[in-house]
Amino acid sequence: MFKIALLQMTSCGADQAANLAKGTDFCRRAKAQNADLALFPEMWNIGYTFFNPDEVGARERWAAQAIGVEADAGR
Fold first, then answer.
1. What confidence tens digit (pLDDT) does each residue in 5-32 have?
2. How far apart are CA 25 and CA 52, in angstroms?
């Protein structure tokens, strides 16, 4: 049997360090419950924050918050 944990968590807004810490805690709790895979809500790392389209460079700064596939969460 393969167990999947669906992480139901609210974010800490745009504070990515706090969101990473919270996500790590939720993953550890899922592992303690024998989950094989933990799935995060979309945009969990920036809390559904958005950019002001009238502000120059805002979209680029917002997009730069994305977590790339090469990211390592300190495994």
1. 999 988 888 888 999 999 999 999 999 9
2. 31
Helix (H) or strand (E) holding 6: strand 4-6
The ranges assigned to domains in the chain are 4-63
- Single pTM value for the model: 0.71
- At 51, the amino acid letter reads F
Is residue 10 classed as helix, strand or coil in its secondary structure? coil
What one-character-per-residue DSSP string does 15-68 give? -HHHHHHHHHHHHHHHHHTT-SEEEPPTTTTTTT----TTSTTHHHHHHTTPPP
